[in-house]
Specification:
The protein is mainly alpha-helical. It contains 35 helices and seven strands. Helix 5 links the parallel strand 3 and strand 4. Helix 32 crosses helix 34.
Length: about 775
């Protein structure tokens, strides 16, 4: 019902509501009752009628009934039906690095859990949503699905609710007593008051507002579009313009009257825009998700809209509520509602410039990706990972065109950079998906493909598809050597070494990684080549040569530190910690492992966090803390469902079984199992705090659904506490072993979330929380 909802990353958390929820008491009760009694409930209705808000509010109210969690999956920016299961995996925290189809991993994960899954905006993926929903419901008896769509999914057992417009006043009806306005009038009044300072519903304007809401059929989107016009017109003027503007513009004759009215409302809003605003509206529809000003200026300018005019025109669209601010992490970004973006797509297609604009838009992203590729091995790594987080939906929506139609070098170079971003973000499953599509669509035998072939083989290795990886690496090696490309030769040797490690051939792995290390000294900086020494450390670890493991992993960590990056650095620390533990130096091991885990938490590296928890559990076993160790192992086991790979090969499983066996012998099977299962129910954030020896933060606990009582994340609360101690950003970075840029970003986020403007306010807030 509201135009504004905060944008959430695809973490599965319910979107926060920034505007009031008006009415829908009957519908809330009805949907809640249906969820209790039925496996699949679908809210249907036209765009703008309020399906999403109703679903989110109902899911929030029902969360206590689902101990496995409530997860929200927004599908509006997803254009590839084949990535539906992967998108749901992302929302559930299943990062997609494991072998096997994402749908199978979803089914396995949900099989014994009581979960409510909200699938929002299914209509453009109707067949895929129907097929996957049916499979998941058959495999997971505790699963409930609440879907929103413009039409039913037509799955067996589905119960649909047609979401009606808000209640509206009848012409000539009696005046409503104060405070008892119908829902559509209440909505108009609240949004009008937000749009125009000092505006209130009075006896003088109530009749015009009531007639407006009646003429708009009580459709929330249409009402909100009308309310914002009070910035320019009186209620009577809006009503008079409604007669000439709104009802002369009709939708398709075959569509339902309410849908016609909604389209007419958007037509009307479009008619009130200037020529440049209409042009920008159409061009902005190329963005599947939210976007920033730089992207809008570069992708949408030209041919009647100079780049220097974009900011003013965009501001005009924001003022008209066509575009909304969607700030993320203190950064100003923008988005359009789905119905308004789809309207822009139609306008763009009618003008014949859609394909050209999509190419122009991806050219902008391709330029950014080239910069990212060159800087991922350095101090800008965290910034680029953050950028990719924000732009992922936009890039993904364009990739289908890029893979099949873009100029060869553009497609190859873009996927080369994206592959590294996916890997650093723990998205090997999505990386494999697009690499496979590129390999199928393109002739990769020509010059310049060796590095991409090596990268594709690495994703196959991480998913234990060693046969396919080997064939691709043979091709990549031959091409790299034939072309004399030293960078490609070094990368392929590294990937061959990792494959040998996964296959259990440690001696061959060490030979290949040693060769890659020598070649890499002459190669350009590549974040993947920085991992060579870390993998050599793993190889020596599995050979039982602990001093050599510490030496090589330490070199990897120092290389990462010298470059200013964090991902390789933290993996080097992790392997050093494992080697020190096995060598018997528990204090030094825990110090390294905890420093690594803190960085992995900042990077949201789920695989790294899982490995860190397991390694710290091993240290705790050696120190006699068997119950605590078993809990961490249970938490890691649950997190492992999102990775489905040991990453360091079969030797890692043997290492893990060693300290599991030690804990079982010390506790007995029954006590060990009880502690392990308790850890499996523990929120990941709490497990990590326990592993780090940090005290629990009051009010900050996140349940399985990912909801948190505090507006801040666990890490942000930790940073806020250090601000309260009087530490500078540099001191905070040193204390937590993070980059200063990361500390700056955390404090920027804290100020934005709490609505503060100074560090002193953060300190006072922390004191009031009792932390």
């Amino acid at each position: 019902m509201a135009l504004e909802m905060t944008l959430e990353r695809q973490t599965g958390r319910l979107p926060a509501e920034f505007t009031s929820f008006v009415g829908r008491k009957t519908e809330l009760h009805q949907v809640r009752r249906l969820i209790d009694g039925h496996r699949l409930v679908t809210l249907t209705g036209p765009g703008g009628v309020g399906k999403t808000r109703l679903a989110v509010r109902t899911a929030a109210r029902a969360s206590d009934a689902f101990d496995g969690g409530v997860y929200f999956v927004g599908l509006s920016s997803l254009t590839e039906p084949s990535l539906l299961a992967q998108a749901i995996c992302d929302a559930l925290g299943l990062a997609g690095q494991g072998g096997g189809p994402a749908a199978s991993r979803l089914a396995d994960h949900l099989a014994d859990r009581r979960v409510l899954l909200v699938l929002d905006t299914c209509e453009h993926l109707l067949d895929a949503c129907a097929a996957l929903t049916e499979v998941l419901l058959r495999c997971a008896p505790g699963l409930r699905v609440l879907a929103t769509s413009r039409q039913p999914l037509d799955v067996l057992g589905e119960h649909t609710i047609s979401v009606a417009p808000l209640g509206r006043p009848e012409p000539g009806g009696p005046d409503a007593p104060d405070g008892e306005e119908c829902d559509s009038v209440r909505l108009f009044a609240e949004r009008a008051a937000a749009a125009v300072q000092g505006w209130t519903l009075t006896n003088g304007n109530r009749d015009a507002v009531a007639r407006l809401c009646h003429r708009l059929d009580g459709i929330p989107l249409a009402i909100e579009l009308a309310a914002v016009q009070l910035r320019t017109f009186s209620a009577d003027q809006v009503l008079s313009r409604l007669g000439t503007r709104l009802f002369q513009a009709r939708g398709a004759r075959t569509s339902v009257p309410r849908h016609q009215t909604l389209r007419a409302a958007i037509d009307w809003s479009h008619a009130l825009c200037s020529a440049e605003e209409r042009l920008l509206w159409a061009r902005l529809s190329v963005f599947a998700g939210d976007f920033d000003l730089d992207a809008a200026e570069h992708a949408c300018s030209g041919d009647g809209l100079p780049a220097e005019h974009v900011v003013d025109v965009l501001t005009g669209l924001v003022d008209k509520s066509v575009v909304q601010r969607a700030d993320r992490g203190g950064r100003v970004r923008y988005r359009m509602l789905d119905s308004l973006r789809e309207y822009g797509v139609e306008r763009l297609a009618a003008g014949g410039g859609q394909a050209r604009l999509r190419r122009r838009c991806f050219d902008w992203y391709a330029g950014r990706l080239r910069l990212a590729r060159a800087e991922l091995a350095g101090a800008e790594q965290a910034r680029w990972l953050d950028w990719f987080d924000r732009e992922r939906a936009n890039i993904r929506a364009l990739l289908g065109d890029v893979v099949t139609t873009a100029e060869t070098a553009t497609a190859r170079d873009a996927l080369d950079a994206l592959g590294r971003l996916w890997m650093l973000h723990g998205m090997a499953g999505e990386c494999r998906h697009w690499m496979d599509r590129l390999l199928e669509a393109r002739d990769t035998t020509g010059e310049g493909w060796a590095r991409l072939l090596g990268l594709a083989a690495l994703t196959m290795t991480l998913q234990d598809d060693l046969g396919a990886a080997g064939e691709l690496l043979d091709r990549a090696s031959a091409q790299a050597r034939a072309e004399g490309d030293r960078d490609a030769v070094a990368l392929v040797a590294c990937c061959e070494g990792v494959r040998a490690l996964f296959a259990g051939d440690v001696d061959r792995s060490l030979r290949l990684l040693g060769a890659a290390d020598e070649l890499g000294e002459q190669a350009d900086d590549d974040v993947l080549l920085l991992l060579v020494e870390v993998f050599r450390g793993v190889g020596y670890l599995f050979k039982g040569d602990h001093p050599a493991a510490v030496e090589h992993a330490g070199r990897g960590a120092r290389a990462g530190e010298e470059h200013g990056e964090l991902w390789v650095r933290s993996y080097g620390m992790l392997v050093c910690g494992l080697a020190l533990w096995l060598a018997g130096d528990l204090d030094a091991a825990l110090e390294r492992l905890r420093r690594s885990l803190r960085i992995k938490r900042d990077l949201a590296d789920e695989l790294g966090m899982t490995l860190g928890l397991e390694a710290i559990a091993g240290c705790l076993c050696s120190g006699g803390e068997y119950v605590r160790a078993a809990r961490l192992l249970g938490a890691a086991d649950r997190m492992r469902e999102s990775t489905q790979t040991a990453w360091f090969g079969p030797h890692h499983a043997m290492l893990r079984e060693t300290h599991i066996g030690e804990a079982v012998r010390a506790l007995g099977e029954r006590r060990y199992r009880a502690a392990f299962e308790e850890g499996g129910r523990l929120a990941a954030a709490h497990a990590i705090r326990d592993a780090l020896g940090e005290p629990a933060v009051s009010g900050a606990g996140a349940g399985a659904s990912g909801q948190a009582a505090s507006p801040l994340t666990e890490r942000e609360l930790e940073v806020a506490a250090l601000v309260a101690e009087g530490l500078s950003n540099r001191d905070i970075a040193d204390r937590l072993t993070i980059a200063k840029r990361t500390a700056d970003s955390h404090i920027e986020h804290i100020l934005a979330k709490l609505g503060f403007s100074s560090r002193a306010q953060i300190a006072v807030w922390i004191t009031e929380q009792g932390t």
